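User: My instructor asked us to take a sequence, write out its structure as tokens, and then describe one feature of it. I'm not sure where to start. Here is the sequence I was given:
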Amino acid sequence: MLDQWLQRTALKNQQNNASKTFVVCDENKQVMGFYCLSAGSVSRQFVAGALRRNMPDPIPVIILGRLSVDCSALGKQLGVSMLKDAVLKSKTVANQIGVKALLVHALNPQAKQFYLKYGFSCSPIDEMVLMLKL
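Assistant: Let's start with the prediction itself. The structure tokens for your sequence are:
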């Protein structure tokens, strides 16, 4: 399913400036993983207290829209490396414009645990929406 998203949607979104997709390839130019970032906002009711303090409604965020690793690269820390890259890119943007957090919609409980392990917090309204303060 995520492969289909990369093939069908990523280029269109990039051309329309809706999101930017970052792709990791191996030496044979095979896609090993990718993620995308876009601008967004979230209602204060979806944000934990510390993140919403003194913030407008809605709160400006960067959305980590997709993060996918090829099956052959599982267990090689590629997902962790891409997440770190996404956080660094997001922090750079946050230092230049007003952005409070990196937001992700976890697709399943395993993805949720992955993001929790790296410092994301669950929304008080939807536990599959997670945020990392930038």
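For the description part of your assignment, you could build on this observation: The longest strand covers residues 31-42. Try explaining in your own words what that tells you about the chain.
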